[in-house]
Each structure stands twice: as C-alpha cells, then as structure tokens.
C-alpha cells in the first residue's frame, strides 16, 4: 500500500507576515477609540458603558485598562482621534482652496464640514456631560482647545494681512456659528434655515476679509 506523503506547509508570502507588539497595541487602541465614537453617536454618553465599548471593539476589559486609566480619558482620546482623522481627510481640501474673494467662503464650508456630522455629535455628548462631570471636563478641555488652535491655524493661513484682533474675531465667530449650526442639526432644525445662515455668514465674512485687506492690515 502506497502512503501519500504529507503535503508540505505552504511557505509564507514574501515580506513580514506577523504584526509587531506595537502594531497590535495600536490596533487595539484604535478599535477602542472607534467603538467609543460609535457608541457616543448611537447611544449617547449616559448609555455608553465600558462593557459596550469593549464588546464592540472585540477586546477585554483588561485590554482597555492597559490603554486608558479611566473612562474620561478614553472619551477625550476618542474625540481627539476623530478630530485628527477628520483633519487629515480635510488637509488636501484646505490646500486646494481657491484664491481671491471665494477663499474665505470655501474655508467656512470646510470648517462647517469638519465641525458637523459625527464629530459634532460625539463632541456634543461630551460637552453636555462635562457640565456636571468635573473629571470629564478636565479630560476634554485640552482636546477642545487643541481643536480650536488647529482651526485658528487654518484661518490664520488664509488671513492675508488681517490684524491679530480681527483674526481672533473672525475665528471665534466662525467656530461658534458652526457649533451652533451643528447643534441645530442635532435637534432636528430646518436644514434650509441652516443653509441660509451659513450663506449669510460667508457673505459677511467675505466682506470683512476684503475690508481688512483694503485697509492694509
């Protein structure tokens, strides 16, 4: 009786096939952050439990504790993670903003697209909860300030010769308007009204920018 020799193992494909420990840690951390954002958007902050986050991320509670010391730290890191991802996605668009009078209007559209949607929903949940949660407030405040700084840097790059005072005014008006519009969207406000308000602000801001350049500031 002839014995069929065992099939030799398939040689590994060229290149590295195993992830390093650092890559595994990074993947676990990203899974936790993505699951946190998903829970905040779908369930809201009060119903976002560590058990639910770990289940969606496919990791154990011990793995979570290895990466984050508290739920507040995880929440702040999740918003930072989402913000960074959105900024990377918007970077090519920022580099392609048109020149001339249409530049500021296009920049406002870019900011609105960044501040609305998933980021606005997740951040809103945390801002509201932070009002009565001191630990959460301490955790997300640096993240919120960093987001503000990055937005200001974007506007500064478009400012031409505007004075610092006018630049700050333009920045805060734009940020607070876009946040307000994002909240209006979350509450089911009229989308046509939001479009009208955004269009009016772009018109005013374009005039404001033009005035600064004409005054030689």
What's this entry about, in short?
The protein has helices spanning 21-43, 50-57, 61-67, 71-95, 102-115, 117-130, 134-157, 164-186, 191-214. By secondary structure, the protein is mainly alpha-helical. This is AcrR family transcriptional regulator.
List keywords for this structure.
single chain; 217 residues; mainly alpha; Arc Repressor Mutant, subunit A; 2 domains; 9 helices; 75% helix; elongated; disordered N terminus; disordered C terminus; HTH_TetR
What does this structure look like?
With 217 residues, this protein is mostly helical. The protein has 2 domains: 23-68, Homeodomain-like (Arc Repressor Mutant, subunit A), CATH 1.10.10.60; 70-214. It is built from 9 helices and no strands. The chain has helices spanning 21-43, 50-57, 61-67, 71-95, 102-115, 117-130, 134-157, 164-186, 191-214. It is elongated.
Approximately how much beta-strand content do the residues carry? under 5%
Shape: elongated
Tally the helices: what do you get?
9
Q: Summarize the amount of helix as a percent range.
A: over 70%
Structural Rg: 23 Å
Class per helix and strand makeup: mainly alpha
The stretches of 5 or more residues where confidence is low (pLDDT under 50) are 1-7, 212-217
**SSE sequence, one letter per element:** HHHHHHHHH
Count of individual beta strands: 0
Q: What's the mean pLDDT score?
A: 80
Largest sheet: none
Number of folding domains? 2
N-to-C span = 96 Å
């Amino acid at each position: 009786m002839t014995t069929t020799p065992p099939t030799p193992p398939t040689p590994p494909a060229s290149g590295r096939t195993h992830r390093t420990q650092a890559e595994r840690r990074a993947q676990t951390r990203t899974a936790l952050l993505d699951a946190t954002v998903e829970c905040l958007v779908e369930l809201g902050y009060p119903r976002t439990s560590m058990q639910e986050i770990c289940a969606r991320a496919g990791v154990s509670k011990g793995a979570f504790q290895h990466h984050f010391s508290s739920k507040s730290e995880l929440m702040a890191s999740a918003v930072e993670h989402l913000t960074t991802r959105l900024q990377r996605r918007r970077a090519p668009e920022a580099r392609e903003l048109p020149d001339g009078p249409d530049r500021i209007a296009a920049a406002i559209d870019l900011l609105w697209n960044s501040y609305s949607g998933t980021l606005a929903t997740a951040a809103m949940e945390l801002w509201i909860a932070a009002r009565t949660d001191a630990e959460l407030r301490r955790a997300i405040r640096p993240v919120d300030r960093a987001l503000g700084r990055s937005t200001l840097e974007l506007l500064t790059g478009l400012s031409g010769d505007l004075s610092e005072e006018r630049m700050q005014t333009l920045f805060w008006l734009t940020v607070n308007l876009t946040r307000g519009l994002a909240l209006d969207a979350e509450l089911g406000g009229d989308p046509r009204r939001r479009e009208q308000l955004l269009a009016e602000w772009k018109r005013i801001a374009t005039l404001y920018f033009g005035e600064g350049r004409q005054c030689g500031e």
